[in-house]
Design goal:
The complex is a heterodimer of chains A (216) and B (228).
Chain A lengths: L1 E9 L5 E9 L4 E6 L5 H8 L7 E6 L2 E2 L4 H8 L2 E4 L10 H11 L4 H14 L15 H13 L5 E5 L7 H13 L6 E5 L3 H7 L2 E6 L2 E5 L1
Parallel strand pairs in A: 3-8, 3-9, 6-7, 7-8
Antiparallel strand pairs in A: 1-2, 1-4, 4-5, 9-10
Helix pairs in contact in A: 3-4, 3-5, 4-5
Chain B lengths: L1 H15 L3 H34 L5 H12 L3 H12 L14 H25 L5 H7 L4 H11 L1 H16 L3 H7 L9 H10 L3 H26 L2
Helix pairs in contact in B: 1-11, 2-5, 2-8, 3-5, 4-5, 4-9, 5-8, 5-9, 6-7, 8-11, 10-11
């Protein structure tokens, strides 16, 4: 899915992310680890096509990633990211899930059915009509995951997605993630939790002071 | 003191008696200012949103210019547009001078920088996660812009109300571009200026009370949206 080579992303005078080589295949799970401030979120933002690299070659799904808005928008529609502290749009859980389907011109009836199914996957099927402002931190995280899953993206980026999820829900969350690559979805997840990294058994990407490397 | 008391009594009678002249002035004010704020919003809201979300060279200069335009004296706007719209001016053939559309144009020029600046402030102060969320959900630039505004409804409403507050109470543009013509371009503010100078203090007072009530309503609205 991704091929990045000799890439530099300069965010400020103090911080830049360097990626000598990174290849990520379709239907794989990749785990990004590293200390706080090492650049995990920056790497995920680069892979979400939100940060533009200053140097290097960047291929996604066989295409060179350029700087033109129409191409970026069309490529972004194949990728979805769930932030560590996700933002839910104002309104209901249902309107959040429907938004991204609406911008893709998905028919209203399909939107409803897909939203229900995605929420059911994260154990929140009965939250469809709930107002976003009534949700707890963990519920917001799960709705954000459902909002990503409803799009059936080719790549799912997750920035420390279990930070607000309680231990009871953690196992089902991880089982859900483990089931996704079977449909061809590529999962790239950042985490602090070494045990979680082992449980998910993905390929390891390590970042130290902005330098991205592979762990054997 | 009797003079003030009697004037106040007459003013209240004029208001509650729905005096024709008072109603005409109130209607002209509301019509011109409301139309002006609609057009000012059409230009000001996208400008503020664009300035808040984009990064480009010269942005600071543009924001400084917009800040300066916020403080434009109404008579200066009136003077410049008078030059453009007067018979000898480049737009003289349009025949707009001393008509409600000329007043609307002038008030729009006054309100647009206010709306743009306050929308800009709302965008800058909004949650930093909104735009990346919209982009990662696959929204186009236009879809992102529309949804972004929906995420900051109170900031946008506060900007529109503040713009309306500015134009409903101004006198320079209405006087210079409208000409204070009875029944067509006489607004509350221009009527107050004229009638008071003619010695009709009670009439001016009646309109002053209505204007104050409107200002109070506008500020109540502004307060409501700013506290959300």
């Amino acid at each position: 899915m991704y091929s990045l080579k000799d890439m530099t992303v300069i965010l400020s005078e103090q911080f830049s992310l360097r990626i000598p080589q990174l290849d990520i295949g379709k239907g794989e799970i990749h785990i990004v680890t590293g200390a706080n401030g090492a650049g995990k979120s920056t790497l995920l933002n680069v892979l979400a096509l939100l940060h533009k690299p200053q140097q290097g070659s960047f291929h996604f799904a066989g295409q060179v990633v350029g700087r033109k808005a129409p191409q970026l928008q069309s490529l972004r529609r194949r990728i979805t990211m769930v932030e560590q502290s996700p933002y839910l749009l104002q309104g209901t859980v249902s309107s959040n899930l429907a938004f991204a389907l609406k911008v893709r011109n998905i028919h209203k009836e399909d939107r409803h059915q897909r939203s229900y199914e995605a929420l059911a996957k994260v154990g929140m099927a009965d939250f469809l009509k709930r107002q976003v402002k009534e949700l707890s931190g963990g519920e917001i995280q799960r709705v954000a995951l459902a909002r990503a899953l409803v799009l059936q993206p080719e790549v799912l980026l997750l920035d420390e997605p279990t930070a607000n999820i309680d231990s009871d829900s953690l196992a089902s969350f991880e089982n859900l993630l483990l089931s996704l690559p079977a449909s061809g979805m590529t999962i790239i997840l950042s985490t602090h939790d070494k045990a979680q990294a082992q449980r998910l058994n993905g390929k390891q990407i390590f970042i130290e002071k902005g330098l991205v490397s592979r762990m054997m | 003191m009797d003079y003030l008391y009697e004037s106040l009594q007459t003013a209240i009678q004029l208001i509650f008696g729905l005096d024709h002249e008072v109603r005409m002035a109130v209607w002209t004010s509301l019509y011109t200012s409301s139309t002006a704020i609609v057009f000012a919003s059409l230009f000001g809201i996208p400008t503020g949103l664009w300035l808040g979300l984009s990064r480009f060279r010269g942005k600071r200069v543009l924001i400084t210019l917009l800040n300066t335009l916020m403080a434009l004296p109404t008579v200066v706007v009136g003077l410049l547009l008078f030059g453009l719209l007067s018979r000898q001016g480049p737009l003289g053939s349009w025949g707009l001078l001393f008509t409600p559309p000329a007043m609307i144009l002038g008030q729009m020029v006054l309100a647009t920088p206010i709306v743009a600046n306050l929308v800009l402030a709302a965008v800058v102060g909004a949650d930093k996660r909104i735009l990346p969320t919209l982009l990662t959900l696959g929204a186009s630039p236009l879809q992102s812009a529309i949804q972004f505004l929906k995420e900051i409804p109170f900031g946008v409403m506060a900007a529109v109300i503040a713009g309306f507050g500015r134009v409903i109470a101004e006198v320079g543009v209405a006087m210079m571009l409208g000409g204070n013509i009875r029944g067509t371009t006489r607004t509350m503010t221009t009527a107050i200026a004229l009638e008071t100078s003619k010695g009709e203090f009670a009439f001016g007072l009646a309109l002053g009370i209505i204007l104050l009530a409107l200002a109070l309503l506008v500020n109540l609205g502004l307060n409501f949206f700013q506290q959300r």
